[in-house]
Amino acid sequence: MKHLRKKAEAPTDKNIAMRVSTVSIVINCLLSLFKLAAGILAGSGAMISDAVHSASDVFSTIVVMAGVTAANKKSDKEHPYGHERMECVASILLAAVLFITGIGIGLGAVEKIMKGTSGTLLIPGKLALEAAVVSIVVKEWMYWYTRAAAKRINSGALMADAWHHRSDSLSSIGAFVGIFGARMGFPVLDPAASLVICVFIGKAAADIFRDAMDKMVDKSCDDKLVAKMTETALKEEGVCRVDEIRTRMFGSKIYVDIEIAADSRLDLKDAHQIAENVHCAIETEFLQVKHCMVHVNPLEEQEQSC
Question: Residues with Cβ < 8 Å from 68, sequence gap 6 or more?
Fold first, then answer.
């Protein structure tokens, strides 16, 4: 049985990532300027912190574009397995940017809360509240837009950028609550919201870093996916059993090593064809698999039927 593998060409994946990233940069530049102006004019520290978070998205998206471009480079003599792990490097850089941004916002919030005990905090204006609503709507849309593209091309760096948008949306919700509370007569809630934003940003950074590290250290696929691969191999004619299957993540791609058992009386050509069928079946069924290596074991004499 001949299998033909249908895979999206690398340039197509790259073009999708570049288009989404360009939209992200334009929107974040406009949104960060709008929120910064609203924060300054309305006297809201939470909105200024939120604007800084949005501005950091611009840098993170540029990192994503660089990572995706590098990851889509073809294999060469120095890198025979390709460059997919460059997306992991981009994701780790994004996590670092997020973490530093969160720490900066958190320190600023603590300082303002301390000042609040002396009664020096200002009540933010209505403009800051309106800016928070606009930010929540725009950033949540950007999250779903970027997430859909990331899942389509299986890009870890683009998915990290999507979560950056989601963390910005959550921070805007925190800013809204803080600003609203401050306008209701509790001005300390404005910097307190910045402190909450810091926690959200820190969690997003930790999640992105953990996912990138899993892909950098050859973590195996989840058990359900491995089970499906085993089922696919067993469906091929001539495969009596699967003796062992090992998987490892390589950036956004997967490498598979599988050992199958076949009739020991088969000649070399037939055994090779069975291995080739399993190889093609797995690479066709699971598009994220970059390469599947198949080893054929002979059945023992007492196990010749399968």
Answer: 13, 14, 17, 18, 21, 87, 90, 155, 157, 158
Query: 């690479």: which residue's tokens?
Result: 283
Give the pairing of strands 253-262 and 241-250: antiparallel
Q: Residue 268: helix, strand or coil by DSSP?
A: helix
Q: Mean pLDDT over all residues of the chain?
A: 80
pLDDT in tens, 16-35: 888 888 898 899 899 889 98
Cα radius of gyration (the chain): 26
Q: Please check whether residue 2 lies inside any domain of the structure.
A: no
| Cα gap 154→33, rounded to integer Å | 31
Q: For 246-262, give one letter per residue: b (16+ CB within 10 A) or e.
A: ebebbbbbbbbebbbbb
68 and 101 together in one domain: yes
Of 275, 260, 206, 251, give the one whose Cα is nearest residue 72: 251
Residue 147 sits in the same domain as residue 239: no
**Which of helix, strand or coil describes residue 221?**
coil
Query: Which residues on neighbouring strands pair with residue 289, listed in sequence order?
Result: 254
Regarding whether 203 and 58 lie in a shared domain, the answer is yes
Q: Which two tokens stand for residue 60?
A: 């993170």
